[in-house]
Amino acid sequence: MKKLSASVALAQQLVGFDTRNPGSNELECITFLSELLNREGFDLTVLSFDENRPSLVASFGEEKGPAFCFAGHIDTVPLGKKEWASDPFGRDIKMGRLYGRGSSDMKSGIAAMVTAACNLKKRLPKENKLILIIVAGEESGCQGSYHLAQNAGVIGRAGALVITEPTNNYPLVGHKGALWLDIAFKGKTAHGAMPHKGVNAVYKAAEAVRQLEEFTFNMEPHPYLACPTLSVGYLHGGINVNSVPDGANVGVDIRTIPGMSNEDCIRQIGSLLGGSAEITAKVNVSPLWTDPNLPWVKNVYATVAPILGEVPRPRTVAFFTDGPPLKAAYGGIPTLILGPGDPSLAHQTDEYCPIKEIEDATFIYEQLAESWYNFSPDKC
Fold first, then answer.
1. pLDDT beyond 90 at 379
2. Is this prediction's pTM over 0.85?
């Protein structure tokens, strides 16, 4: 049997860690990566936003200029109810694919960036700084990244950022923001036989859903991300059929585009509903956008073209990433999404990642980091 490359072997090890979110934690996996990078001589900082929920910042080199940064998350989603064909943590490699929960989203990307960084450390001049950010809690709203952004001193100074989410190694320039709202309505309970003595919170919620169905943000479409969207995902209310419900909740999923403020969206929804409800943001991630005409982006396109067999064109993706909080913490630096794995397999039963894409991503990351140091900050 052919010996596995270092990045594929590492991806295989990472898939073996159960980091489901919610239901588990990232501590054991982050400890494993910390020990690996410590042996390689990286400078390490571990910062937790909750018990057993640590994020890792690893770097090498001297900060004589803006560093190059790779980032990604180590948590995964639950397995789902459908039975898997093989153990989701069994790290099986079959037909040139690594199977398991997180193999595509996004432990293969983590493995490729860590392996690339270890290789680069052996040959980059010491004045060239490289940063790795490996976070917890992305799947539940980028908690780890927002926590690091609030403690921005630990992430250093970077000039360009690559989020190693699955894109089949195709560089993407942005994604919509995600704003998930829980809207709570209050009423007054009463006997179901005497509803006039109560205030029905479900009626309030139902009227709000009707208003939300007709609501538009009146925004010009973005050339690559189209229009913002709003979808009502749930309406819950009441406890039993023979009581007037005194509480009801509506869940709203809003996807925002560049030029929109998520906070403004919350105010708009509050104004629409006339202040009759309590609005809580459960997930609040801004849109991500990088100008595809930047010289650094063009350089990335040229680097990956021989591997993809085509020169990339500006593309975006539907899912959100750790890009927005980290990009903001770094002062708005150019940020791309580029990693091994098919994004359509993320969160799916029998998830897998082609091992060739893991190896290609490792090569691409090394090329991108080495070429970065030929760019001055004003030309990136």
1. no
2. yes
